[in-house]
Amino acid sequence: MTGEVLGRGAERRVRSAGGLVRLVAHTDPVALVGISLSIALSVTLDLTNAATGVESLLAGLMGITISLLVDSLARAERRFHLRTLLDGPPWLVQGTPQIVAAVREAVERHAETRVAAEAQRRYEQFRVEAEQLAAGRIIRPGDDDEDLMGATRDCVRRMSGLTNVTPRASGELSWWYSDIGRRYWEANLAALRRGVRITRVFVHATLTDELSELVETQRRAGVRVGLLPLGVVGPHLHVNLTLWDGASCWEARMSAHGEITENRFSVDRADVDRLTRVFDQCAAAATFRN
After folding, report:
1. What's the pLDDT band for 260 if we cut at 50, 70, 90?
2. Could you give the dihedral angle defined by the CA atoms of residues 46, 51, 55 and 61, in that order, rounded to the nearest 10 degrees?
3. Are residues 65 and 182 part of one domain?
4. Which of 87, 120, 154, 183 has the fewest CB atoms within 10 Å, i.e. the most exposed one?
5. Residues facing residue 213 across a β-bridge
6. Domain ends where: 37, 68, 85?
7. Is 23 within the bounds of a domain?
8. Is 70 a residue whose pLDDT tops 80?
9. Where in the sequence is the domain holding 31, given as residue range(s)?
10. Which CATH number is 191's domain given?
11. Domain boundary among 85, 116, 151
């Protein structure tokens, strides 16, 4: 019986300590410092007889009151900022509290487990991806061609592409004959039928029969194709890219074996301008045949 009472007492102390920790965690640091200084001032005035007991108490209470007022203003400002952030589409306003509540429950309910660690990792990943979206970028795995296809279907005026066929990226040419490459070419043909002007430059180490056949196929379909031997431009221009209507772009991040590991679609003006400069320099150095 005594052990049970002691156990309950220990549990109450743990809960009280946990409540104190949560209180401290949710209190503005400025308020905590202000309250601590107010208490220290009150004690100092009383111990040094610089003020009467009542005056020391009033000075401490006044400092604590000011600190709590500052804390209240800070909380109000944070709530106003949060409401401003959530002043958006209904799906954002309704979904954000649910996401935050779910992550918090996972971390608190399953503390110090793999679940809590994974919840934090996924939240951080979501934060990074959201920041990329805010910058106008979509980053997808190498086998996800959704943006490449979608932007080609949406193109209405002009489309520019740069494909590198080099010894280090020899697999890039076979990409055109893969399932993704064939779907992309079909989207190119549909764009040509809509009146879209397509210009494509192939950077190559060797003009093989396979590459020549691919180039002629695209030329006959109506694509303006240029050939650029490897070494004519600097290595920093060896980029696989596509530009649509001067408003959006796609860039492939490659592995050492020439495999696409990451697809980067962007409507960010800086990204579009950068890849436009890359394409223009390569196109200026390429050989086009009418």
Report:
1. confident
2. -50
3. no
4. 87
5. none
6. 85
7. yes
8. no
9. 2-85
10. 3.30.870.10
11. 85
Q: What pLDDT does residue 169 have? A: 46
What percentage of the chain has pLDDT greater than the value 70?
Answer: 77
pLDDT of residue 86: 64
CA distances from 275 to 55, 72, 251, 258, 266 (A): 71, 50, 8, 19, 10
Between helix 209-221 and helix 179-193 the angle, nearest 10°, is: 30
Distance CA 287, CA 138 (A): 33
Is the model more confident about 8 or about 33? Answer: 33
Cβ 230 vs Cβ 208: under 8 Å: no
| Helix pair 53-85, 29-47: axis angle to 10 deg | 180
CB 150 within 8 A of CB 244: no
Record the tokens describing residue 108, joined without a space.
């608190």
Task: Retrieve residue 198's tokens.
Answer: 């397509």
Six-digit token string for 6? 């002691």
How many separate domains does the chain show? 2
The verdict on residue 15 lying in a domain is yes
Q: Is residue 92 part of a domain?
A: no
Q: Are residues 67 and 175 in the same domain?
A: no
